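hey so i finally got around to running the thing on that chain from the lab meeting. sorry it took forever, my laptop kept dying and i had to restart like 3 times. anyway pasting the input first so we r on the same page abt which one it is
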Amino acid sequence: MLRIGIIAHLKHPIAEPFAGGLEMHTYLLASLLRRRGHAVTVFASTRSEPSLGLEAICEETSLDAVGVSEAEDVAFFKEHHAYLSLMNGLRGRDFDLIHNNSLHYLPVAMADALPMPMVTTLHTPPFCWLESGVRVASSANNSFVGVSESIRTAWSPVTAIDRVILNGIDLCRFRFAERPAAEPYLVWYGRIVPEKGLHFALEAARLMGIPLRFAGPVLDRDYFDAEIATRMADGAGLYLGHLGHEELSAVIGGACAFLCTPCWEEPYGLVVAEALACGVPVASFARGAIPEILTPDCGVLASPDDAASLAVAGAEALGLSRRACRQRAETLCDAEVMIDQYEALYFERVASAVPRRAHGDRYAAVPDILPLLIRSSDHAPEQSQTLVRFDAAVESRVQSLSEPRQSALGA
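ok and heres what got predicted. didnt touch it at all, straight out
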């Protein structure tokens, strides 16, 4: 059994209904590790699921004593404060390993100060803040995981990726539906924001002549009003709201195809895995990691940002085997396989962790090559209290380097 601390991101609670794939991934990671007997603590926002071993780090009241009037982005500052406090506190905790599942720069930037190893999962391509943190994390106790080969490639100019571990889903919660609903419909679901491209799915559904049912949180109201509501006027789309797992699974399983429309390089695509688990063929823009998930047996790729191409791909997907879709999910997307791989990495990292030298509370750690001018014996009466020690070779080298300077001073 390991004592594992999981650092979540703070924009949304780690609880159902999930705001997106990252929240679901963190939830699965924590719950399945706990099921396997590990002692797990999740550092997340206050409204997250308590059964995960929640230790809330983002309470509004904790910031009452901190001035924010000069902060241009208060939300950014509050996240910064919460992670800064957490990372300082973790130096005195007894975790065997920390798993950083956030997208914030501070946990990874401060990882070198921790006494235990840290595993960071990279869920996105590089962006300036996170890249900055990754570039300064140089300790051998750090390890980076990419959620796809696409992410490994994107991060390769910045840092080495130690392992690629594909995201998994709970196959039991996304049940296989052998046949679609009697009344045909297409499905789309996810965060309703411009980069997820719901407007392309509505346009493709209109071209196919099949209605689209869609679900997810509206996180950009201006986008919804300008691009989505206007395309629903003719009855081509039906918004179902933000659904929990059970209801969402039933809606997905009843669809004749899933339209996936990322307008960015999708790091993985949990929605694709979920659709396949339900036996639903996928038509998707060929972006990011999605071509790694789909095969010709379970999906059809379309030209990015092209509703007409997506409509053609959707029509082809209608003829694919639903059984083949489920088999692909079982082979590639099972959360239990994901946890197997993370467990193996955890034990490997704990076994090879670089021990940190113990120092007295009175002294900061100092480099071994610090000149002899600075010794703890200068500040303590007993030579036995000396903190910095040198072997004979290093001491001789330092003395020889200092002799010319001493001669000059004597002159």
